[in-house]
Design goal:
6 helices; globular; mainly alpha
């Protein structure tokens, strides 16, 4: 897949998920590790802003390269929340546990895609 197409796919994903941080913030609040010494809602909104900004940046060729680097960093930065979701959902029904566990490996292709966009943008 071309870096341009990957950029558009990542942008669509980030814009959608980023908007959800404002439409329905509670699920995002709930998976923020309590060990992070900050207000979960503030972190939810901050990550939503970051996702929307990075997604928008991926759509513009002039800001695509820096936005791709920021996307890769963001995907790494939110991984602890995904790990925490597995921890928090260990006693949930099997389908919910499966969703939490299945999310973990999906971060790696997203990081790879962001790096590919970064390398393919000038």
């Amino acid at each position: 897949m071309s870096p341009d197409r990957l950029a558009r796919l990542l942008a669509g994903m980030l814009l959608s998920i980023g908007a959800m941080h404002f439409v329905a913030p509670k699920p995002f609040d709930d998976i923020i590790p309590e060990e992070i010494p900050a207000d979960p809602r503030t972190l939810t909104y901050a990550s939503g802003v970051a996702e929307v900004a990075i997604g928008a940046g991926l759509l513009a060729p002039r800001t695509r390269r820096v936005s791709a680097a920021l996307a890769a960093a963001l995907f790494v930065a939110v991984y602890p929340a995904n790990l925490n979701m597995v921890r928090l959902w260990k006693d949930k029904p099997l389908p919910m546990r499966a969703v939490a566990i299945a999310r973990l490996p999906f971060q790696f292709p997203m990081i790879w895609a962001a790096v590919k966009v970064f390398r393919g943008s000038r």
